[in-house]
């Protein structure tokens, strides 16, 4: 089978397509034939610069290694002790630095769940990582509820698009920041109001917010404290919350980490099958080396609206 591997970090040319043996499952493992995978920030950043300095030792990859997190596919083989899956099941889930591969070997205990076989596996390949981060920031840590006012920064990206939909499914009033070109898209996602961060100052347009979800940088986070009502919350996924500032203002701040339990993933799939959550696919790329390189270049160019998905042959 074909698999992308790294022997060093750097530009897109460090990615190499190699031939490796098809994995064989141990007693408690499954093998999944990959249908689609999402292109995500960790893929691009780790490929370019290596593991994050703050990454826990137990998950920090060492060279040589592959890339990728979220995936969709079909179970093709199971170990003798596996009871949660059957051959032929359609599944989605997470396998850190391991999905740029035609087949994926997973423990039965991995964060993977079955999905109805009538669902298109292509968009589902880009669901997990974005929705896990959005779920953590909006629902688990953010505790978005019906009737609340929620401000989401970076609402048009892969994570932001999920955060808007999750906040709306919880019954919140959603204010979304992005570019003017992204305004219609953010409204399609369910945003009640949109703010063009390039020409408008959200601190002059928004106040008494119950929750701010920061999916952008530290400056936006620093400016956000002042718009949150006392007793409100702020979550951030890529800039560390100033706990002294939140304490001074009487608000709760959390640095949200994108993980989900199997049960939470099942809840998300329920929302997806009900049409309350969608994966907007920006562009698809075949699982071929030059196309994967282009996917990384396109992702790095910024202005991402929706997900970039790498698609495998049937």
The overall pLDDT, averaged over residues, is 95
Low-confidence region ranges: none
Q: Which structural class do the helices and strands define?
A: alpha/beta
Counting DSSP H or I runs of 4 or more residues, the number of helices is: 10
CATH topology of the largest domain: Quinone Oxidoreductase, Chain A, domain 1
The CATH class label of the largest domain is: Alpha Beta
For CATH, the homologous superfamily of the largest domain is named as Medium-chain alcohol dehydrogenases, catalytic domain
Number of discrete domains: 2
Number of strands: 15
Cα gyration radius (Å): 20 Å
Helix-strand pattern: EEEHEEEEHHEHEHEHEHEHEHEHE
What does this protein structure show overall?
It is a single chain. This protein is α/β, with parallel strands linked by helices and 314 residues long. It contains ten helices and 15 strands. The chain has helices spanning 41-49, 121-124, 128-140, 158-169, 183-189, 202-205, 218-224, 243-249, 262-273, 289-300; strands at residues 2-6, 15-19, 29-38, 70-78, 90-94, 103-107, 112-114, 149-153, 173-178, 193-196, 209-214, 228-236, 252-255, 281-286, 307-311. The strands form three sheets. Strands 3, 4, 5, 6, 7, 14 and 15 form a seven-stranded mixed sheet that branches. Helix 10 links the parallel strand 14 and strand 15 (307-311). Helix 3 crosses helix 4. The chain starts with a strand and ends with a strand.
Summarize it:
The chain has 314 residues and is an alpha/beta fold.
């Amino acid at each position: 089978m074909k698999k992308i591997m790294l022997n060093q970090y750097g530009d897109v040319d460090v990615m190499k397509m190699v031939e490796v043996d098809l994995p064989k499952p141990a007693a408690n493992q499954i093998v999944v034939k990959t249908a689609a995978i999402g292109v995500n920030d960790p893929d691009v950043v780790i490929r370019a610069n290596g593991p994050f300095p703050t990454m826990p030792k137990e998950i920090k990859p060492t060279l040589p290694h592959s890339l990728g997190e979220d995936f969709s596919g079909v179970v093709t083989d199971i170990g003798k002790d596996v009871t949660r899956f059957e051959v032929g099941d359609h599944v989605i889930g997470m396998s850190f630095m391991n999905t740029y591969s035609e087949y994926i070997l997973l423990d039965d205990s991995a964060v993977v769940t079955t999905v109805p076989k009538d669902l298109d596996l292509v968009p589902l390949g880009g669901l997990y990582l974005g929705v896990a981060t959005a779920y953590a920031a909006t629902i688990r840590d953010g505790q978005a509820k019906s009737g609340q006012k929620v401000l989401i920064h970076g609402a048009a990206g892969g994570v932001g698009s999920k955060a808007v939909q999750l906040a709306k499914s919880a019954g919140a009033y959603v204010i979304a920041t992005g570019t003017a070109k992204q305004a219609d898209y953010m409204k399609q996602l369910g945003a009640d109001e949109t703010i063009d961060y390039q020409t408008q100052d959200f601190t002059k347009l928004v106040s008494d917010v119950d929750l701010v979800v920061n999916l952008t940088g530290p400056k936006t986070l620093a400016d956000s404290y002042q718009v949150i009502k006392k007793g409100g919350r702020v979550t951030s996924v890529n800039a560390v919350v100033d706990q002294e500032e939140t304490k001074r203002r009487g608000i709760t701040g959390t640095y949200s980490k994108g993980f989900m339990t199997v049960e939470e993933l099942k809840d998300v799939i329920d929302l997806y099958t009900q049409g309350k959550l969608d994966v907007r696919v920006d562009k698809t790329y075949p699982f071929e080396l030059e196309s994967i390189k282009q996917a990384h270049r396109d992702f790095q160019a910024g202005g991402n609206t929706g997900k970039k998905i790498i698609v495998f042959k049937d």
